[in-house]
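Narrative summary of target 7.
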Amino acid sequence: MTVTGRADAVFLAFARALRSAGVDASAERVHAFLRAVAEVGPARVYWAGRLTLCGSREDLERYDQVFAGTFGGAPGERRVASPGLRLTVRDARAGPRSRTVDGPEGPRAAALAGSAEVLRQRDIAGLDPAERAALRRLLAAFALPGQTRRTARRRPAGRGGVDPHRTVRELLRHGGEPARLRHHERTERPRRVVLLVDVSGSMAPYADALLRFAHAAARGSRTEVFTIATRLTRVTRDLSHRDPDLAMAALARAVPDWRGGTRLGELVREFLDRWGQRGLARGAVVVLLSDGWERGDPELLAAQMRRLRRLAHRVIWANPLKARPGYAPLAAGMAAALPSVDAFVEGHSLAALERLAAVVKGADDA
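Modeled conformation, tokenized:
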């Protein structure tokens, strides 16, 4: 692969990371981004991406976080453009790219982005401290919207069913003379997402990353987070700090059973009795992030998973061990739970968590 081809590959990986973070980086925007980088050079890739890939104020914050995680630097760090820079993608020539990554900054940018792409695929358990720091920056930009559902509420629309109340008001406003029909349609909203994160001893290599993933997800107003090991702890409020490190510190004070054993059956039953049956799990997307090691009765876990399956819209199990060669769900807890699971996915790497986010949003797990 040529230098240009490698650079395009890492820029496309950067665009995929932005989509995982919730930025609406459509194919047209990505095409404009690549053309802009070719015009202005990779040294100004930050501004090329900011001007072409972002469509809202919320996108700008996510863009800064993903860019910092991919290419280095502090999130939100302001990149000063040269005074003469004027990025006009619309006028860019469609011919062969004359200014590509042959400049002095090209190999460095490609190498940095290439490292980020490698990091996406690495098993979290094998990362060194520097790689974990880069992973944390990328996880901070995650978003985890649930699959959307239609609600009973309706809103004015240009087409759809006739809105009798607005239509009659329109007739009265015109003195009973014929007037335009008014229409309305049902609104949509994302389903609630409930995360049950295993923080037992066997999950210690993954717990920090999964909890940071949960912290990013908890920024949504319809996400609840619990930790499970020997106790069930609701930590949604502790994860409400905007700063991930402050949130992790609050969570460390709230969770008393770090690296303890695992009693999945009893804790799923407690979750259903105290919160799930009362409404938290009804119609929700429930995600268990665990390796499935169960020290209790597997039959109890199987019964509670069937109960959970009847309440929830979808039950997803993310297991970091699933990606290991030769893995089979033979552990008693995992084997007991699987018949009641709608999607069984990996959870060992950043790419696996991106895939998990897509499945939560409604994508097929295949």
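The beta strands are 148-157, 161-162, 183-190, 193-198, 223-228, 232-234, 285-289, 314-319, 343-346.
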